[in-house]
Write a structure and sequence with these properties.
Strand content: under 5%
Oligomer: single chain
Largest sheet: none
Shape: elongated
Number of domains: 1
Helix content: over 70%
Length: 258
């Protein structure tokens, strides 16, 4: 299917990681500040205009939450869950780094005297597969020094591995997208739950909102926050492991068919 620049395309990852958390936050903000801002913003009586404003606010706030949550929570995962989960992902990452290095450094095999602009004599999947297979066979638990320099940041090879799988193994994209959407949903909903719990902490109790109800809502927010953080880290760990396994299986399959 061809998409034009004017088309609005919202995939499953964007829907779960941006629109849903943004909609939840928009709903909370709209009810919390409606009385204070009625004099500034007129009440939306037209349902079409109200829905348009709601969708716009959800999309905007969803992107804000997505950006604010990505770096700190990914760092939290790397420093806690990933360290405690064992060496399985680290071993797979080492192999994936060697494959990525073989792909990125293909031009380093050009014969002496050949100009950089000239096409190498041997190109294509066979050459890449042989290089990747050779790198994999040499691994003994530690990547070469050149690999560590090229992919110094943790998980820096993950975007490249994902791109290779998307291009070469479309059958595995569905599982990756589903895992990525679930993981990013819980990552984005975590700061929204934190914000909601803090707001309700400062909301005074009243006849329609007792102290017991207030404490129950706050406890529920922070309990759900803790569960969301754990679920995000668990799903991210599975996503990384799945992506590396698909990449390695893809390369081995190419080698078998060469």
């Amino acid at each position: 299917m061809d998409y034009k620049p004017v088309d609005l395309f919202v995939g499953v990852v964007e829907f779960f990681s941006i629109l849903l958390p943004g909609a939840f936050l928009t709903f909370m903000v709209a009810h919390l500040v409606s009385h204070q801002l009625l004099d500034v913003f007129p009440e939306l009586t037209n349902s079409t205009v109200a829905w348009a404003a709601f969708v716009f606010a959800s999309y905007f706030l969803g992107h804000v939450v997505y950006g604010l949550a990505a770096l700190p929570l990914n760092y939290l995962y790397a420093k806690t869950y990933r360290r405690w989960s064992g060496p399985d992902v680290k071993i797979l990452e080492t192999k994936a780094k060697s494959i990525a290095t073989a792909l990125v450094t293909m031009r380093g095999d050009e014969p002496a005297g050949q100009k950089p602009t000239e096409a190498p004599k041997k190109t294509g999947a066979a050459q890449v597969s042989r290089k990747a297979s050779a790198e994999l066979s040499k691994l003994a638990g530690k990547a070469p020094a050149s690999v560590d320099v090229m992919f110094e940041a943790q998980d820096s090879v993950l975007p490249l591995a994902t791109a290779i799988v998307r291009l070469r193994a479309p059958s595995g994209v569905t599982e990756i997208d589903r895992s990525e959407a679930d993981s990013k949903f819980f990552r984005s909903i975590a700061p929204v739950l934190l914000f909601t719990g803090i707001v309700f902490f400062f909301v005074p109790a009243s006849s329609s909102f007792s102290v017991l109800q207030k404490e129950a809502v706050i406890s529920g927010c922070f309990l759900t926050l803790a569960l969301s953080l754990w679920r995000f880290m668990d799903l991210r760990h599975r996503l990384i492991k799945l992506t590396y396994e698909l990449l390695i299986a893809l390369v081995k399959s190419d080698v078998d068919h060469v």
